[in-house]
Amino acid sequence: MNFVTFQFVIFLMTTLFIFLLINKNYRKYFILFCSYFFYGTWSVPLIGVILFSTSVDYYLGKKIHSTDSKIHKKLLLTLSILINCGILIYFKYTNFLLSSVHELGSVLGYTHPLFHPLNIILPLGVSFYTFEAISYIVDIYRGEKPASSWLNYNFYIMYFPHLISGPIVRYKELYSQFEHKIELADASRLREGFQLLLYGFIFKLIIADSVASISDPLFNNYQSINHLESWLASIAFTIQIYFDFLGYTHIARGVSLLFNIKLPINFNHPYNACNISDFWKRWHITLSLWIRDYLYIPLGGNRGALYQTVNNLIITMFIAGLWHGASWNYAIWGLYHGCLLALYHLTKTYLFNNKTPHTENRMVPVISIIGTFTLVVIGWVIFRSTSVDQALTILNKMYDIPGFVHEIINNKQGSAYSDSFITLAAMLALCFIGPAVKSLETNILANIQPLWIKKWLYSVWVFGLMIFMFSPAKPFIYFVF
């Protein structure tokens, strides 16, 4: 059930209506039932995978908390991580590993039917709820209290607004909002929830899906596109993936607020980052914090020698890349960002003595933002490409400076894409001036009087979105992860 469909709107309205009517003692269980129904609209059999995972993790979490033996704690922790990673590897990476071995065998002149892909259906959200399950177990090992009941832990994993694509939430961040009774949201929280829903639909349906109509054909025909079109494709996807995922997160947070449960912010204007480390503090924040706390720091973080820190950064980002998908392009994308982070760390250590450089020149931050954005765009080309050849072909065309300049001078096919360039320029500007636009919008709405005008504006927006929802919506990009 896609968030941006009439089916989901009907599901949400029905769920919310019943939620408002029933006793607060039963609201948590009702939401849990609705979460299973929500997941079952994709696959009923795969619910069994989540039931098995949550049951095992709840039991092992209780055992870890109750035992005093450090050895037993570590054994139980290891068992839980192996089970969760085993589920993830089987469903998500088995065919990737088999196809990789098959391709290697073909190169070496050896093939075997054992290495042919299997018919495995990927459970939706498996990457996200696996990370949440691991964080739950590790936190208990580190001294946090386990869930008071299996239903509470199950609610944490299954809660439908964040089940499929996050935000990645830790149990200790969420349990206080549902552990006992869920109260009804107050007027300000309801208003914020509906606003987030509205913006989420706008970001997804009007911006992301519209820009996808530019990027998809160009990426699909990458061998025949020219230099200008390669830049058009890469910038379009850079905008698409941001507003697609931002739209999903806004909808997830908005829906959750309607049930009086607050999910964490996942984006903080990432394209305004002044370096690659700053980008990862702004992009998919809950994932960045997860890989820092449960991968990077356990590997040693920056506590060892400089070469160890560099290795830890690269290994962490390689795993983060593969977490996104079972394909070499995701692994390369992770390695690319790992190398960028390592290079940034080396530069900061040797050139600036681990201090953030400060300058009075106002152009330096602007240049830093442009440079970081350019590096991020290169990464998105790798991320979006379905093969190494596709990524290299597009990047070669993007950075073939003589060919690019020749096309601009001769205006070769430039006029054919004038509308697309104008559209992308406007959307790209929105990425950078988002904070100013948000502040302006807040002030304008706050000062609109009388109240009926404000209600009329919201009604127009909602009606416009309903028109967009009549056309088939593209799945959210992160749904496949």
Automatic annotation (TrEMBL):
Its main location: membrane. The chain crosses the membrane at residues 6-22, 29-55, 75-93, 114-138, 150-171, 196-219, 231-252, 305-324, 330-351, 363-383, 420-437, 458-480. Keywords: Acyltransferase, Alginate biosynthesis, Cell inner membrane, Cell membrane, Membrane, Transferase, Transmembrane, Transmembrane helix. One of its GO terms (cellular component) is plasma membrane. Pfam families: MBOAT. Pathway: Glycan biosynthesis; alginate biosynthesis. Its EC number is 2.3.1.-. Belongs to the membrane-bound acyltransferase family. This is Probable alginate O-acetylase.
